[in-house]
Fold these 4 entries.
Entry 1:
Amino acid sequence: MAPRFARVRNDGEALAARLARELAPFGNASVVWSTVPWERDAVVVLDGTPTRVRCAALGTAPARRAAGPPVASPEDGVIENESLRVEVALDGSFVVIDRLSGARSGPHGALLDEGDRGDEYTYSYAGPTLGSRDLTGTRRTTVSGDRAKVTVEFVLRLPAGLRDDRLARTPELVTCAVRAEVSLDAGARRVDVRLVVDNQARDHRLRVLCETGTRSLTHVAGAAFAWLERETRVAPRPGWIEQPTAERAVHDLVAVEGATRGLAVGVDGLREYAVLHDGRSIAITLLRAVGFLSRGDLPERKGHAGPALATPSAQCIGEREYRYCVVPLEGEMTLPRAAREIREWLAPPWIGRGDETAHSFYAVEGDAVIQPSALRAGPDGATVARLFNPSREPASATLRFARRVLDARAVDLREGELGLGNTGLDSVRTAAPPDLVDGVVAIRLAPYEIGTYLVRFT
């Protein structure tokens, strides 16, 4: 799979670079490119120094430092910006303190390692359980421009694998080096984490734990076009071949909201999570190291789920990098705002060349719930704009383009090409018709609705 992922990344970066060259206004000044359709502050590396800049909505802006308080490190293991204070322990875990309210969130970032006698389909526990809590590593605190970072390096001593009977882990230990980088940018309301793990152990699952500070019967998991509300406790299903577990799939974020506080965790390429202890903990799976595609001797499942093939490369031996971020939920930091913070983290701006004037091609203004999905060429010279409402409440937004809009209409997912699909219908359900006011498009979306619009310009 690694070569496939590398190919996708390389092709995507090449395409983005080509489009940036073609779309950027002529000039030789340094500009910052942003692909999210709203204005924001972000930190980019300018002349070797992380620098806070102001980004235009889906477009370019001059690459120069924006106004705002700097980051600081008042003491070793502590970093601050204008909103948050982060205290990092010697085991790599950290707490986040809101500087206005004094509310504490955490600890976050503790590693949990459990034996895994399962296969690529199903986890199967094997003890003992180990972790990073209360380990003592080496800690280094740095401030460079508008980014502060605490780096903690420590070693996990983990069982080398399973015993011959596969019922428990072997007493033989191997060393797995870990480097945790906890960083805070100027102006950010999130804490970014980069983990580098040199895995030398087999047959185990490694997860990172984030404490929510609350309890909840339900939680939210991001999917492709929705924030799914799921029950935190998983009920058994009599008669099922394999019982459901707390482990579930996630697209971009997991959030637990209590009455007054909560936590959202953003993930980059990590697709499995669990909400534990009645909502008090969010566990993100970093890796599962197993040696078989399918096994027929697991207590969690009756029989095989696939071919009984050995898969030694699935032991994930070697160094791997993981990224996630945490956003404490409190006061004005609601789930929609946290989702935007995570979206900005997943779509960092980059430096290019252009003129010294800000240019915005497309802006989504208004309700923070609305999420953009696509903007591309459509039929007959029109532009396709697709957005969705991931929440259970109605939402609205305004779409502003670089050129005045002549007309806009809602279409279904076929984008006006009625020959697509086998529906036999002239029209499938569409979003409400948009309103056009002074060349700007106003849209309304029902709960969990995808809106597709054909837009034509003057």
Note: Residues 225 and 390 are 6 Å apart (CA to CA).
Entry 2:
Amino acid sequence: MDHRSAGHHPVLDDINIELAPGKLLVLIGPSGGGKSLLARIVTGASEPDAGRVTMDGIPTARYPRHQWASISGYQPQLPNLFHGTIASNIARFRADLGMPTIYEAANRAGAHQAILSLPQGYQEIVGQIDAEIPAGLLQRIALARALIGKPRLVVLDEPFAHLDSDLETRLIATIDQMRSAGTSFVVSQKQAIVTRADHVLMVRDGTAKPVQITLPQTARPGADGKRPAILATQTSHGANGLRRAVPTAGERADPGPGSLAPETSPAPLINRSMGQA
């Protein structure tokens, strides 16, 4: 996959990423190296100039919007809340997600008790200029929004920002647990999460290179018999060196709304290639 800046200089160049189901990929590297852009492209929040992102071998654009929203979760580096209640924000304004599901997501994000301490609790109105939500709580609400419904692909960009040590430990445990449902893609320099990663990529100057983990790694929860999705992004260079990125999952999605059927030969979870954009 490739992506160019407004000045036509490559921001991400010739990057390929591939992840199997139930794996954790951690991106590290200096500020401005392209980590957040890569995370946005994986989730479909940004489009690459070249390359593609596929899920289950199918371009994410072919997924019905409601289906893609139900199988993926994204917490941006600078999260924001939309005008409405905290409950509605966590539920992504989906009427089919009831309060038990919202409570579960908030608990996993370590936000439940903090939300209950607000004057209106989950009915507190946020997303307006005069709404004062502490940065740490905003971060946890955004995390709950990403985790709701136990998506098969979760992308977290600097999720440990504004968290104390207890909440960091809780988040690490949550990320460990997510392996049974799908694949995790985390942007973070935290050693505790880097040492748990199946793959670590150094993103610098628009390139991504694998990094060997030399520290002892803790036991990693397996997929407990369930087959998570496989996300892949692939690109090949055309005459102008550009292609689009696409996610791929280990199970092929049914073109009709609603269901995902297993693929006979699973593609890698994330295969991303970026050339000059």
Note: Confidence is low (pLDDT under 50) at residues 1-9, 218-231, 233-277.
Entry 3:
Amino acid sequence: MAFTSISANQLDSSFMYSVLLKEILLELEYDDETAKQDFVDYCRYEYADNIATLQTIDRFERDYCQDRVIYWYSQPCFFFELLNRSLRSQDIEILVRMTFVLRHLHKQIEHFHSNTISSGSPTCFHVYRGQGMDRKEFDSKIRNKVGGLLSFNSFLSTSENAAVAEIFVLRNDPNSVAVLFDIIVDKSMSRCPYASLTHNSAIADEEEILFSMHSVFRIQSIEENMDDGSWRVNLTMTHENDQQLHALTDHIRKRIEGPTGWNRLENLLMEMGKWKMVKPLIEVSLASSLRDECHRKRAYFHHQLGVINAMIGDYAMAIEHYKESLALKSPTDLLGLALIHNGIGSTLEEQGHSSDALGEYECALSLINQLGQINIEAVSAVRNNIAGVLRFQGKLLKALHMYEECLELEIKYLPALHPDLAITYANIASIYDDLNEYEIALRFEFKALNIEQHSLPSDHPSLAVTHSNIALTLYALNRIVEAVSHLQQTVDILTKVLTCDDPFLLRNRSLLEKLQREL
């Protein structure tokens, strides 16, 4: 069960991306029967060696329909396992295949919830959930966060019968903490729909209450049972939210707007740094745009592929896509042209052509200055890049001044947790590193890390870069143990998102091994 908790009124970034992903998936246009058949074919491939599961898949193919979604969800079979695993891990590939299921289940819960709200049932009632939790997760997200918010990002199964929930409290597992959640549900406080499954479940005697995705609760108190070491966690449903994360969510929701749900999904994956996952999707979109001869769409998709190829280190292909986009872009789209020139500039800079890069940045800034309304994100991105060239040229104080101007604009106009603020903090830190002012550099690097930890997925490549920068600064301060910790986090993230022969991963792994020998 995936859930998040930070402190009093904070939720971590996985909640935001999970909410945005759910919104997009529920809006995707597709044919239910086609989607169902695609899902069945996928499951047959995945479970090819499991005869019992294949028989269940055959039955699913024959019997499943929208009205039976709760029945199938409540069965302990491949269906329940796949859906919850993919929601926990945000496995986009499986979630896209199961979009028809997500929509059906969410709508069924909403339908039954509206009946519950309008009925004469009690305003407040208790539900219970028993489970085992990883010890570190329990300590960081519950034990040390009493009074804080707790969000379950997937569907949440509970029971009105505490004895049923007790069955699922894993008291004999030495690798986990046994937890019983005691949840007070107040109908007047509920934003997240929930429904009784008693008359629709495959297991009616569990008295199950199922909450849809993204239920939010307040951790009121926790109590340890000294006899067996289990914990009782008392929660109350709340409509409160993390206001800073809410502001950032609205901002990113606007950034990922697109003509179709599939385009919005591509844009969200870009925000999440899922470069390799989104690349084939955009290549398909580009191929489709070639058929309808829409220059605007083709320019957009070439630009996206330019960004992706630059991020995965294929700079020649990135330049090629940027130039294709530039040739197709309307001369009246000043912002679009500016972003392309900025992309070309950053790619040239990665290739070591800083003078040519500066020319592209200046062209981009000139186009942005012609806009009727200032675009803070675009201005900040370009001026940060210009300052980067100044730093390369050794003009450190001039670069620092430009970074500080960017930061002033961003603090004034962008949400407090906007990732662009982290970029600027990291850039300012790089100047202080160059000046050997390591303590000051470290302060700015930790400011960057704090924002990224609250606004980016936990496996985003930018987090790896920040941990690597912090490690280098700590090493310069001879704080080897701390440096090793941050380098280990760098390598852990990069191992998830890069190929094993990626130069950045190899450099950081080599440095980690070197520092470990120095301990």
Note: The radius of gyration is 25 Å.
Entry 4:
Amino acid sequence: MAQVYGWMTVGLLLTAFIAWYAANTPAVMMFVFSSKITFFGLIIAQLALVIALSAMGAKT
């Protein structure tokens, strides 16, 4: 169980770093917010990834 929490901590730290980097890099912000297609495409891709990972987790 401790190993699971360790992986969760690593995942949260990685997510925090990527969010900080994206928020502080103008090029990334321009890429995300320059087009509605890009913005909503990223949201849809994120939801699709969650659904796919949930389905994979339910199989095991």
Note: The chain has one domain: 2-59.
